[in-house]
Design a protein that fits this description.
The protein is an alpha+beta fold. It is 18% helix and 28% strand.
Length: 265
């Protein structure tokens, strides 16, 4: 009897392990030859553990509270080469304090952020643009939305299949104001779980931090790229009502960071 139970346990473990290994990896094309997987949430820095971590969910965004966890960073302050916590958490409104000191359209030499032992990187300006404009059916694979009460922007993977129980409207809203996100797409937590399991990625509209003040909560989303624009600025992905695209901002702006990795599958 004991032997039969052991056999059943081993078989059950094998089935569960096989199921986990065969879970689909949903990819996003960011160039003609490069596909990536997005991190499970926005990047955070925990001042108590002195380590980077990911948000507990894709819709989680903190801004300036609680003070022990930061999720709006000056440009480049999330790289492995930045080991000084005072730089990672820097809020000074001085572009020269935000290294690396790259000039026009240069990229990070060491575009690497290690979280829980895995290396991730930041999309370049060209890669954000490719995701947004140049991959197959690009315009059909993004849209503003409210997810579980949080405004933001959804990207769908290359292989996305819309579940029969849900709808998705691509594009951006035609009017200005926080409420217009939900007019395009509005998903409760259970709906979002279904979309997330099918590979959808959600970027919360959490504005930007300038010094200690966070501007544009629920209206704007700003996500850093790895691309410099001169010694003062860097490119980012911007979205708000009526607009989605790449622009450039002062490096001292505290923007959100969403990392990616190249799929190993």
């Amino acid at each position: 009897m004991v032997q039969k139970l052991l056999i059943l346990v081993v078989l059950l473990f094998a089935v569960l392990n096989s199921s986990a290994q065969s879970a689909p990896v949903h990819l996003f094309s960011v160039s003609k030859t490069k596909k990536v997987v997005f991190s499970p949430g926005n990047l955070q820095y925990n001042t108590k553990t002195q380590k980077f971590q990911f948000a507990a969910s894709q819709a989680e965004c903190l801004g300036t509270s609680p003070s022990t966890i930061k999720d709006l960073f000056g440009w480049g302050m999330w790289l492995d080469e930045i080991t000084d916590e005072s730089k990672i958490t820097n809020i000074a409104k001085d572009n020269s304090q935000y290294t690396p000191e790259l000039n026009a359209n240069n990229e990070f030499k060491n575009n690497k952020t290690t979280v829980n032992g895995t290396e991730w990187f930041t999309l370049s300006n060209d890669e954000w643009n490719y995701l947004l404009k140049n991959r197959a059916n690009a315009s059909e694979k993004y849209g503003v939305a409210m997810v579980d009460g949080v405004n933001g922007f959804i990207f769908l993977p290359d292989d996305f299949l819309l579940p029969d129980s849900l709808t998705f409207k691509s594009g951006i809203a035609d009017d200005y104001g926080a409420k217009y996100y939900q007019d395009v797409n509005n998903y409760i937590a259970a709906d979002w779980t279904i979309l997330e399991n099918n590979g959808a990625v959600f970027l919360p509209a959490w504005g930007c931090r300038v010094g200690t003040y966070v501007n544009g909560l629920a209206y704007y989303g700003y996500y850093w790229s790895s691309t410099a624009r001169g010694l003062r600025y860097a490119f980012d992905l911007d979205f708000y009502l009526g607009f989605i695209g790449c622009y450039y901002r002062d490096r001292y702006w505290g923007n959100s960071v969403r990392l990616v990795r190249v799929s190993q599958n």
